[in-house]
Amino acid sequence: MTLNFETLKATLVLYGLNAVVAILLLVLGWYASGIAERFVSRVLAATHRIDALVTVFLSSLARYAVLVVVGIAVLQLFGIQTASLVAVLGATSLAIGLALQGTLSNLAAGVMLLLFRPFRIGDDVEVAGKAGKVQALSLFMTELIAADNTQILLPNGSVWGSAIINHSTYPGTGEVKVSFPVRAGRPIERIGEQILKHLREDSRIEPRPVPEVHVSKVVDISDAVHPIVELTVSAKANPAEADAVKQRLMDLVSTMLADANATRPEPSRAAG
User: Fold this and answer.
1) Per UniProt, which keywords does this protein have (predicted)?
2) How far is 249 from 180, CA to CA, in rounded Å?
3) Coil, strand, or helix at residue 31?
4) CATH number of the domain at 5-99, out of 1.10.287.1260, 2.60.40.420, 3.40.50.620, 2.40.50.100?
5) Mean pLDDT throughout 11-29?
6) pTM above 0.90, yes or no
7) CB neighbours of 117 closer than 8 A, spacing ≥ 6?
């Protein structure tokens, strides 16, 4: 058997050139994939509405898409039929997708949650029959912390497919309202004056609308002279400070009621 050196030489030159072109394609593809990743990352980051985790996921997806295209082009350079390879990969992907459809549905739901952001970290939510504060949100799981400091892990598929009640979306009105029972007469006037003075001196209270103290309703009329009525205090404060103002007001009212009860004279008893 004779060896045809001319044919061997031509073959080596052809495959050598193909190898050089393949290496160049791989190098260029590697740099192009990095450029595509950075471009997608910058575009998504500029919107300020897409979570960082989604940005990383989509930018990595763009990079691997470029690498896949470059890999197919390199295989074609060496005469490998990529059509059958793509068909095999497609069938394999379909089988894997059917086997992991639950996991993939959680992944898709996680992407949708991260894109549309129905809630954010730290929000108080009710979802899928559970209530708590959002601690973390990943592509597969949503983590809540219940009121008793219990960890709740929810698959993203169940979160995206159920009603979401977010108690933190809209800020509070800042309304401060406290109601308490007190005896009618002079004590109620004195307590009302002291409360209004305190509210006017508190810098956290907004001047409009004007704070007010009024009788809400009659609670007990067993004592015809001094019936027990419900006194309601209402004011407007900064939403972020409303809870602190309300707590301070409740402490003040408790102190006033304790002093009023301590100074109230004992009812006289009929002589036997």
Assistant:
1) Cell inner membrane, Cell membrane, Ion channel, Ion transport, Membrane, Transmembrane, Transmembrane helix, Transport
2) 11
3) helix
4) 1.10.287.1260
5) 77
6) no
7) 49, 51
